[in-house]
Amino acid sequence: MDSVAAAQVRDAARTGTPRIGVLALQGDVREHFAAIEHCGATPVNVRRAAELDAVDALILPGGESTAISKLLEVFELLEPLRARLRDGMPAFGSCAGMILLASEVLDTRPDAKHLYGIDMTVRRNAFGRQVDSFETDLDFAGLDDAPVRAVFIRAPLVERVGPGVEVLATIPSGPFAGRIVAVRQGNVLATSFHPEVTGDLRVHELFVDLVRGR
Ligand code: GLN
């Protein structure tokens, strides 16, 4: 971790209730907002660069990654967000948020932008029509007491990870067995699935702990 990132984590840890932004351009913003509140942190909707400046960390929700990409440009958030990620701001992306955090995206629109938050290649809508939405139980590294119920909705898959990226979960069985669906690089987490819709807050708790520097 560089010194800027370390200082941010220390600041958040000191206050005890970090301000966690939820990128509120499109998608399931409310579910993440509620999850963060339940975890004892302060959720903040982020639509403007000034709002981004004022948060300790950011959640990028599920939705439609190409629409969010377009809105990031319209709201002049794309470069400020890339800069905060470069400076080590903790972030968590679910589904479309995972796509946005990638360094390379397959099967997207040629004009779609992404954020280079995690050194990974992500394929959009990777499960195909037959199973484009499904649920399964996953083993998730660090959440060892019980499997995580994972809800996939036209979800992406991680096709490649760089050397600094830790794989947190893979698909346990079936045609996609072994494929990567949760990753972490430093302070940045991403899941192909939607922990915000199941009522199991452990992935959000993990993220809030990471923001608090625990
Ligand atoms: N298929 C969507 C996309 O490409 C992601 C779906 C989701 O976030 N549930 O952006």
TrEMBL record:
<dbReference type="InterPro" id="IPR002161">
    <property type="entry name" value="PdxT/SNO"/>
</dbReference>
<keyword id="KW-0315">Glutamine amidotransferase</keyword>
<dbReference type="GO" id="GO:0036381">
    <property type="term" value="F:pyridoxal 5'-phosphate synthase (glutamine hydrolysing) activity"/>
</dbReference>
<comment type="subunit">
    <text>In the presence of PdxS, forms a dodecamer of heterodimers. Only shows activity in the heterodimer.</text>
</comment>
<dbReference type="GO" id="GO:0042823">
    <property type="term" value="P:pyridoxal phosphate biosynthetic process"/>
</dbReference>
<dbReference type="GO" id="GO:1903600">
    <property type="term" value="C:glutaminase complex"/>
</dbReference>
<comment type="function">
    <text>Catalyzes the hydrolysis of glutamine to glutamate and ammonia as part of the biosynthesis of pyridoxal 5'-phosphate. The resulting ammonia molecule is channeled to the active site of PdxS.</text>
</comment>
<feature type="binding site">
    <location>
        <position position="124"/>
    </location>
    <ligand>
        <name>L-glutamine</name>
    </ligand>
</feature>
<feature type="binding site">
    <location>
        <begin position="63"/>
        <end position="65"/>
    </location>
    <ligand>
        <name>L-glutamine</name>
    </ligand>
</feature>
<protein>
    <recommendedName>
        <fullName>Pyridoxal 5'-phosphate synthase subunit PdxT</fullName>
        <ecNumber>4.3.3.6</ecNumber>
        <ecNumber>3.5.1.2</ecNumber>
    </recommendedName>
</protein>
<comment type="pathway">
    <text>Cofactor biosynthesis; pyridoxal 5'-phosphate biosynthesis.</text>
</comment>
<dbReference type="GO" id="GO:0005829">
    <property type="term" value="C:cytosol"/>
</dbReference>
<comment type="similarity">
    <text>Belongs to the glutaminase PdxT/SNO family.</text>
</comment>
<keyword id="KW-0378">Hydrolase</keyword>
<dbReference type="GO" id="GO:0004359">
    <property type="term" value="F:glutaminase activity"/>
</dbReference>
<feature type="binding site">
    <location>
        <begin position="153"/>
        <end position="154"/>
    </location>
    <ligand>
        <name>L-glutamine</name>
    </ligand>
</feature>
<keyword id="KW-0456">Lyase</keyword>
<dbReference type="InterPro" id="IPR021196">
    <property type="entry name" value="PdxT/SNO_CS"/>
</dbReference>
<dbReference type="Pfam" id="PF01174">
    <property type="entry name" value="SNO"/>
</dbReference>
<feature type="active site" description="Charge relay system">
    <location>
        <position position="194"/>
    </location>
</feature>
<dbReference type="GO" id="GO:0006543">
    <property type="term" value="P:L-glutamine catabolic process"/>
</dbReference>
<keyword id="KW-0663">Pyridoxal phosphate</keyword>
<feature type="active site" description="Charge relay system">
    <location>
        <position position="196"/>
    </location>
</feature>
<dbReference type="GO" id="GO:0008614">
    <property type="term" value="P:pyridoxine metabolic process"/>
</dbReference>
<dbReference type="InterPro" id="IPR029062">
    <property type="entry name" value="Class_I_gatase-like"/>
</dbReference>
<feature type="active site" description="Nucleophile">
    <location>
        <position position="95"/>
    </location>
</feature>
